Amino acid sequence: xxxxxxxxxxxxxxxxxxxxxxxxxxxxxxxxxxxxxxxxxxxxxxxxxxxxxxxxxxxxxxxxxxxxxxxxxxxxxxxxxxxxxxxxxxxxxxxxxxxxxxxxxxxxxxxxxxxxxxxxxxxxxxxxxxxxxxxxxxxxxxxxxxxxxxxxxxxxxxxxxxxxxxxxxxxxxxxxxxxxxxxxxxxxxxxxxxxxxxxxxxxxxxxxxxxxxxxxxxxxxxxxxxxxxxxxxxxxxxxx
Length: 240
Fold this sequence. Notes:
Layout lengths: L2 E4 L11 E5 L3 H13 L3 E5 L2 H7 L6 E5 L7 H10 L6 E5 L4 H9 L4 E4 L4 H14 L8 E4 L2 E4 L4 E4 L2 E3 L3 H12 L7 H7 L11 H13 L8 E4 L3 E4 L4
Parallel strand pairs: 2-3, 2-4, 4-5, 5-6
Antiparallel strand pairs: 1-3, 7-8, 8-9, 9-10, 11-12
């Protein structure tokens, strides 16, 4: 068995997740592990599904699993751990990007699916989102970012004392951004999580909704909260 463990605790005491990367391409595995370690996480690596079965423990917060591997492929690995009662969130990585391929991965027990090639910032964002979901129901009913507040029960949004009226899609978009405050969210993430598209429709739907949302939550206020991160996506951020 070949496995490596990278621990960033000595360099970064803020490490907050233990992640198992299952990838037979050593170069890709090393690149992913390095990026996650620099982001403050502890990383274990396995080269195939059989090795992963020996390494996986309850202490792992997320698994990143390549679909195409020798000895035991990713689909079989995830089906096996799910049948064993292991509910660790799984992010599939694969060059197989058709809708049927994604559906197969999710039906096998995967929680998310990212197509190669991918942006490392998006990989980290997705992994951290899965880690936040592990083992805890989302009971949060009020989201905040600076003086922007969203009440999920009342379906109301206020900025300071000003009530902001949003259309259903705008509300869903803002909710996703607020759940990821201070994190860059990509266009792909927005298409999948807000519009439930698992492909790019090649329209300006995101630009239009972002523009409308920015006009409602930022226009007329001293501080802008919704940022465009050039070449990456968008971020909701409240400056100190």
